[in-house]
Design goal:
The chain is mostly beta strands and 422 residues long. It folds into 3 domains: 30-210; 227-314, no CATH class; 328-422, no CATH class. Helices cover 7% and strands 39% of the residues. The strands form 5 sheets. The protein has a 15-stranded parallel beta sheet. Strands 4-7-10-13-16-19-22-25-28-31-34-37-40 form a 13-stranded parallel beta sheet, with no helix packed on it. It starts with a helix and ends in a 9-residue tail after the last strand. Residues 1-26 have low confidence and may be disordered.
Length: 422
Amino acid sequence: MKRKIFSMFIALVLVLTLSLVTAVPVGAATTLTVDTSVPASGTNFHTIQAAIDAAFDGDTIIVAAGTYSGFTANVANLTILGAQADVDAAGSVDRGAPGDGDESVITKQVTIQAVNITLNGFKCVDSSSHGIYIEPGSMNAQILFNIISGPDWQGISNQGNSGVKITYNYVTGVTVQQPIESTSHSGTGIEITHNVISGCTGAKGINYWGGPGALINNNEINGTTHEAIYTQYQATISGNQIADIGGYGILLVGSAAGSTVSGNTISNTTNEGIQSDVQVTITDNDISDAYQGIQLSSAASGSMIDGNNIHDNQYWGLSIQPSVTTATVTNNQFTNNPYCGVVVWGDGEGSGININFNNITGNGIYGVESKRSDSSVDATNNWWGDKRGPSRALGNAKGHDKVKGDKVSPYVKFAHWLRAPV
């Protein structure tokens, strides 16, 4: 009997022990703080690096306003929150102009050296290297709502990692390298969105040569010395505001074939608003005061130019270079471009160039000009600004000498035309 009671007691102890283990899991995520205004303790630290060194996988570190040295985030799944976490860095009501309000300021490079790191709400200033550097092997980094000001190298640099999101950051004062870059010809699922790049005069705005499939959307870029957005790989480039650029607005080269460029507003670029050396779909952009609105060259055959407003540029609205044998140009507005609305260069076959259902009005020398002598560039079914059609380069037929539509050059097929705007 005593042996039976003893066995039941042991069983009860085991059940209670197992229930306690289940109720209090070992290694549960905790929240640490960094705040120099209160004494250091087991959960509060006076440097960010000390908090990281004490942290475990999945912990959160909350950093109070103040000034701190740079650090290396080398513990996986850390969330590191500054005093301005989730507050838009560029002119929001909560944060004000960049630098206003209580900031968690970092004075040296921040290095991401583990997977699934979130860095949110900091101001990184005057680094002698990069502002934020995401080392190889640090997938899924989230760089959110930060100000990066005056680094000697890149503002934010992703070294070929997949799943990285760089969003709602304000980058300024980069004068040597790129404000934002993703490199190494690798990395998929990369998002560079809703950032502001301003006052960066040294190089490109966004320099992308990671893997295919990037989203480069809804950024505001102004004042860069070279192109605002450069990509060597297929990407979706949409909704960006680009102005006052010393090079191209958007440049697509290399392995960027299949990219979509849509809904961007581009103005005042020293070179083309959009330059593509690869097959691309360009839709619903507004381009003005560029050297040329859009240029297709090299391997850009098969491109689609659809629904764009290309106006008031310095020379041509759309330039199609000799190497481009096929292109579809439809539903666009070509207005007030001093030389031509559309020019097709070269001496070869032009039958693959189709320019239809566009409004082509108010352009300088020609609405459409072709240098291809086989007379096969198809510019039928366009509105030329006059219901009687375009003016002819060699003079209008009898009875049409008062036609005021944009002029077409020789080697262009233009009949039939539209009698009203599209």
